[in-house]
TrEMBL record:
Residues 1-20 form the signal peptide. SUPFAM superfamilies: FAD-binding/transporter-associated domain-like. InterPro entries: BBE, FAD-bd_PCMH, FAD-bd_PCMH-like_sf, FAD-bd_PCMH_sub1, FAD-bd_PCMH_sub2, Oxid_FAD_bind_N. Residues 71-246 form the FAD-binding PCMH-type domain. Keywords: Disulfide bond, FAD, Flavoprotein, Glycoprotein, Signal. It comes from the Eukaryota. This is FAD-binding PCMH-type domain-containing protein.
Length: 545
């Protein structure tokens, strides 16, 4: 914070420095063919709108249907890359022919950033071919390519060992590519932190086509790609994970309480107990709207979903001491292997075989997501206002995730993800609907914004923090082809707080022409003439130490 007012007064204007090449899609295709003919020919990896399977490939990994419609421009070509040489050729040929590159792995971006742009672009698809998973239990590690889905990674680990897992996210169908670059939280975050806190190496292809690993990229870039947003620094090929020990059996439950059953009091109490529980327990509160099928009356029902790295007996004893109001009994609890707990948390019925994690078929919906960090407990009145708004929206759920534990121990500058100590919980507002059309979208987006507006006084302030993996264009948006620094500082401070300055420096070093840009990308330092704006570098350097 300390230097930003000064910085902003210098940098209200962004100056686009690189004169981009004129747009030529034919030139791009010819360049690709030329560059790859001696290595691995690329022609059977290119899907243009002329190819019959273009549409099915494009839509297979669009998770938010809002961005599936034609008013959001789609890639001129999908390059289903098979090798590093394909990625290098795509980047260089796009650059020389005035095209932008987007990279898509799992397609779970909330705002379609991986497959939509207002300027002519091509999309690198990582999901189809670059999805290998190589687990090495002896070394307690795994190399995974960006196109691997989180569920596939968990499944692969479980085929080698029952006593290791990995602390990443809950939805099995998002991919390593976007998820790891933005943080990646899940049921073991209070024990081990985020995915990025457990990533020990990575391979990236940069804007000048270089393939780098941790050693050759250096610690600044390695720091930046773990939480600073995957698309900002290049195309990330693969990640090396440090596996995390888990007991042979863990314990889970999912108990539901409606407003009439005391949900308001329970959530009120939850705020004070869940963030202070031992690290082995992650107890999420997930409110949803429930309709009585006979009367049509709506209420809110809160699912309290637990993940405990220990036995059912211990969990029951812990909760009867610390949260007796929840009334947990051993009959509520289920002991199972860690990978089975992933299936349970993904909301499949008990007993569903773990092979369901290998199902990659996406279930797309229309959606609008937003996120907040909460540092002071909410009053019962505020909780009741949330219920009222939710009932009005109806098709909404909140994921309320307790912080504390390991999350409070890791320094706010250890990675670009700054939301560490001092948070009671993180809340995701996720409105999802199936009605097509702009009117439905406008209505649900408006209602979601109203709920977030209502929350303003009760959540983090100056800045109002947000989770980069729950991308939200409401909090500040640039153009696809032009990154205004002052605008970037607004969303940048919300996503990264003071880490934003170091991210700008790393970005300027690794991608000085700002080739990889999007509506919420990290900006480069603005330049005037041949140099960066005088005086800014030392200012930022002193600010980050
Ligand atoms: C249903 C659902 C559940 C979720 N659950 C969780 C959760 O439990 N925990 C959590 O932390 N988050 C969760 N998320 C958020 C998720 O982490 C992000 O949406 C994440 O960015 C998705 O990654 P992806 O590869 O699937 O998406 P994509 O849309 O493919 O990519 C997301 C962003 O990363 C970029 N990108 C992707 N791959 C690469 C690459 N190889 N190199 C460079 N840039 C790349 C894209 O260009 C885009 O900007 C969830 C999202 C959804 C929709
Ligand atoms: C797309 O169509 C072109 C022209 O018909 C063809 O040469 C190419 O092989 C097709 N691409 C794929 C991936 O099938
Ligand atoms: C950016 O793209 C828009 C169209 O989306 C165009 O009108 C504008 O001129 C472009 N700006 C630059 C700097 O290229
Ligand atoms: C629905 O409402 C009726 C009438 O009030 C009530 O008897 C019934 O228990 C309710 N059903 C559920 C599932 O809550
Ligand atoms: C795990 O729990 C299940 C269900 O209680 C039990 O059948 C199984 O023996 C346990 N496995 C281990 C390794 O403890
Ligand atoms: C895979 O998942 C999709 C989407 O949830 C579902 O429709 C399909 O039936 C599943 N396939 C199998 C083989 O289970
Ligand atoms: C959408 O809303 C507009 C303005 O209210 C209305 O004229 C139009 O008929 C609506 N469209 C649909 C498909 O409902």
């Amino acid at each position: 914070m300390k230097f930003f007012p000064v910085l902003l007064s210098f940098l209200l204007l962004s100056v686009s420095c690189a004169t981009s090449a004129p747009v030529s899609f034919d030139g791009f295709l010819q360049c690709l063919a030329r560059k790859t003919q001696s290595t691995l020919p690329i022609f059977d990896s290119i899907y243009t709108t002329q190819n019959t399977s273009y549409d099915s490939i494009l839509h297979a990994r669009i998770n938010n249907l809002v961005y599936s419609t034609p008013e959001y421009p789609k890639p001129l070509a999908i390059i289903a890359v098979k090798s590093v040489s394909h990625i290098q050729a795509t980047i260089l040929c796009a650059k020389h022919n005035g095209l932008q590159v987007k990279t898509r792995s799992g397609g779970h971006d909330f705002e379609g950033i991986s497959y939509v742009s207002d300027v002519p672009f091509v999309m690198i698809d990582m999901f189809i071919h670059l999805n290998s998973i190589d687990v090495n239990v002896a070394d307690e590690s795994a190399w995974v390519q960006s196109g691997a889905l989180i569920g596939q990674i968990y499944h692969a680990i479980s085929t080698k060992t029952r006593v290791y897992g990995f602390p990443a996210g809950i939805c099995p169908k998002m991919a390593a590519g976007g998820h790891f670059g933005g943080g990646g939280y899940g049921v073991m975050m209070r024990k081990y932190g985020l995915a990025i806190d457990n990533i020990v190496d990575a391979k990236i292809i940069t804007a000048n086509g270089k393939l780098l690993d941790r050693k050759s990229m250096g610690e600044d870039l390695f720091w930046a790609i773990r939480g600073g947003g995957s698309p900002n620094f290049g195309v990330i090929l693969s990640w090396k994970l440090k596996l995390a020990p888990v007991p042979a059996n863990v314990t889970v439950f999912n108990v539901k309480r409606t407003i009439a059953q005391g949900a308001t009091d329970l959530v009120y109490k939850w705020q004070n107990v869940a963030p202070r529980m031992p690290k082995d327990l992650f107890l999420r509160a997930m409110p949803q709207v429930k309709k009585n099928s006979t009367t049509g009356e709506k209420t809110v029902e809160v699912s309290f979903i637990a993940h405990f790295l220990g036995s059912s007996d211990k969990l029951v004893a812990l909760l009867s001491k610390r949260f007796p109001e929840l009334g947990i009994q051993s009959t509520d609890c289920h002991e199972m292997s860690w990978v089975e707990s992933i299936v349970f948390w993904a909301d499949y019925p008990l007993g569903t075989p773990i092979s369901v994690l290998l199902n990659t078929t996406n279930m797309a919906v229309y959606s609008k997501g937003k996120s907040d960090y909460v540092k002071e407990p909410l009053s019962k009145d505020v909780i009741e206002s949330i219920w009222k708004h939710m009932i009005k929206i109806e098709k909404i759920l909140l994921d309320i995730n307790p912080y504390g534990g390991r999350m409070a121990e890791i320094s706010a500058t250890a990675t670009p993800y700054p939301h560490r100590a001092g948070n009671l919980f993180h809340v995701m507002y996720y409105t999802y609907w199936t009605e097509a059309g702009i009117n439905a979208t406008n209505r649900y987006v408006r209602l979601t914004r109203e709920l977030a507006d209502m929350m303003t006084p009760y959540v983090s302030k100056n800045p109002r923090e947000a989770y980069q993996n729950y991308k939200d264009l409401d909090i500040g948006v640039n153009q696809d082809n032009q990154t205004d620094f002052a605008t970037a500082a607004v969303y940048g401070m919300k996503y990264y707080k003071d880490n934003f300055a170091r991210l700008v420096l790393v970005k300027t070093m690794i991608d000085p022409e700002n080739f990889f840009k999007n509506k919420q990308s990290i900006p480069t330092l603005p330049r005037v003439g041949d140099g960066y704006i005088r005086g800014i570098l030392p200012l930022i350097e002193s600010a980050i130490g």
